[in-house]
Amino acid sequence: MRSVIHFVFFFIIVFNEAQVNGTLNNKRFPDDFKFGVATASYQVEGAWNEDGKGENVWDQVTHRVPSPIVNNDTGDVACDSYHKYKEDVAMLKDLGVDFYRFSISWSRILPTGFANEINEAGLQYYKNLVKELRANGIEPLVTIFHWDQPQPLEDLGGWTNDIIIDQFVDYARILFRELGNEVKYWLTFNEPKQTCNQGYGTAQKAPLITSPGMGEYLCTHNLLRAHAKAWRLYDEEFRQEQQGTIGITIDTPWFEPFSNSTADIEAAETKLQFTFGWYTNPIVYGDYPSVMQTNIARRSAQQGFKESRLPQFTEEEKAYIKGTYDFLGVNVYTTFLVSSTDEPDPSMGLDEDSEVLDWQPDDWESTASSWLKVVPWGMRKLVTWIKNTYDNPKIMITENGYSDNGTLEDDGRISYYERYLSSLRDAMELDGVDVIAYTAWSLMDNFEWMQGYSEKFGLYHVDFNSPNRERTAKKSALWYKNLLETRCLVEECVD
Ligand code: NOJ
């Protein structure tokens, strides 16, 4: 029975997709809509131990013997952007982007993680980068934390120890103070779900800790309070003078109900709440989604815990966290199907606690990344759901992209971008979603975490075998450049 339903469903999806593929949206992107590209410090900078930088969790993990990373790759040199940032800015200029999203390496600024000692050379690097961007008319969008916490803080428990909250806020204060005159767009965190669930639950990202059903919730509880405190710091002490804006980037796939049954529709909503709502609900409404609170409390009791494994906010904390965003950054790449189940897995873990099933059909269009299936219509559904669920926020797509093996003739990437952008434009036009920016991941091929250099997302190719790390524009870079000039996905747009 299941396979018949599967088949029928697949048919509906193929049909749906064919419709979307056939015609790209022909409305020009609005004049004030911004286009950019993104990278992150550990993935591109290299210079892992130069000019006083301290060790971070990715240095620590990539230097383990045996290495847990594909091909024993490391970010020791990566794209060498620490030395080649002027070339990076020249590429950005050539693309014609409105903004560049990059992240700051905490241990380059504060080698031990603590704010007692600032590494001036590290700070100078980012000042130079920002200056170069500004000189070329490119707006910096700075991610304060993109997964690379200093190892000395990790040795104390990292994101599971609440002392990190004040350390993070001290670090953010230095950035606001030193860079805030030139940086007007800030993101506190990138994809906290990956930091917490993969970092402290399932051991798929540094610091590779296995504590499912416990570690990810402790991490998130601290991270959300750190986010709120940094946002309030900016709001109270820097905003008036610097006139900037500050948000957070949260990632989620779109979760599509497997069937029209009420149970599957509810299951998909539950999954969205366990992924996107986990962070967005506290930030917009002050507390974890009720389905998380209920499920985890019930399962914790069944498992013999005296209290829920999901920590609780005090009333004061709820009021403090609520409303701490100027816009929502959204990273979206793909879609999963979701169904309910009568036999939920009783073990501990974020996915298990959701008590639903999710998967991607094998025959969906694939990429070089196992988790990344090409499903353009998920883009529109996701942003429309965000609009309806979170009170119509301003949305910046802070990442969206496609992986392959690094070919220069990357037609697959162009086709992905065309269809996802068309779906996004549909959401703006037909559903009135307030999307203000779009960011392609990534400016160039870079260190793809546990996958090392085996999965490539760049608009520019980087020669990782050459000490000079030469960059070469791929076909998609030329395509993106043209899009940024015309702001239009088809031959001729209507306004
Ligand atoms: C999400 C992350 O923010 C980024 O670091 C990563 O490389 C891309 N997605 C692709 O997996």
TrEMBL record:
Keyword list, A-Z: Glycoprotein, Glycosidase, Hydrolase, Signal
GO biological process, one term: carbohydrate metabolic process
Pfam families on file: Glyco_hydro_1
GO-annotated molecular function: beta-glucosidase activity
Gene3D superfamilies: Glycosidases (3.20.20.80)
Residues passing through the membrane, by range: none
InterPro entries per record: GH, GH_1_N_CS, Glyco_hydro_1
Signal peptide coordinates: 1-18
Quaternary state and interactors: Homodimer.
Family, per entry: Belongs to the glycosyl hydrolase 1 family.
Name of the molecule in the record: Putative glycosyl hydrolase
Species whose genome carries this gene: Chrysomela lapponica
